[in-house]
Design goal:
- 35% of the residues lie in helices and 16% in strands.
- It has a 7-stranded mixed β-sheet, with helices on both faces.
- The protein is globular.
- The chain has one domain: Spore Coat Polysaccharide Biosynthesis Protein SpsA, Chain A.
- By secondary structure, it is an alpha/beta fold.
Amino acid sequence: MTRPPDAPRLTVLIPAYNEAATIAEIIRRVLATGLEPEIVVVDDGSTDETADIVRDLSRNADIKLVQQTRNCGKGAAVRAGIPHATGEIVIIQDGDLEYDPDDYHAILREFEDPEVQVVYGSRRLKRDNPMSSPIFYLGGVSLTLITNMLYRTGITDEPTCYKAFRADLLKDLPLHSTGFEFCPEVTAMVAKRGITIREVPIRYAPRKKSEGKKIRTKHWFEAVGTLLKHRIRGTE
């Protein structure tokens, strides 16, 4: 499918750390959307073949590889990739297979409204999604509740990976996060600017720790601390 001339130019930003088992498949799925996206993969100091796989794939597709010399964390990887994004819309995509790139279509439809600046894909709005482990599920629900209490955002899934932004806005945010606190940081900054976050339902196939899931309990506390810190600060 050829992208219509007036359609948003999409950049898919993939922070990846030791995702050799899945990175080729997620890139294949992104390309299969038919959206002709630009793909920016930030290899965050992987010790496996992640970078080599992406480099090989870049010979036949619009893929940019950005390499970190050491593992710095998801937030640092996202920040490293943002300057390389040339699309009008930028969406964050994890390097695993938990999220389905076919949902980009629903997300991009929201941006047909010129007033829309930010769209999140919500796992909670799709009722038949499988639940991750109880501790991860409750962690996500509680973070969302805390976000809504502190920032009056009214969203259903704050820690979702699928966060999409107009590129001009994303590049203007003074992001400082290095780890998984990227999600609450960017949400707080957007909310403090008075920008409404739209949501659309998305599919979700949670993976286990044994399959490479990297979120840990400590990251919940870091996320809450980030939300509180930005609530106390002045306007970003």
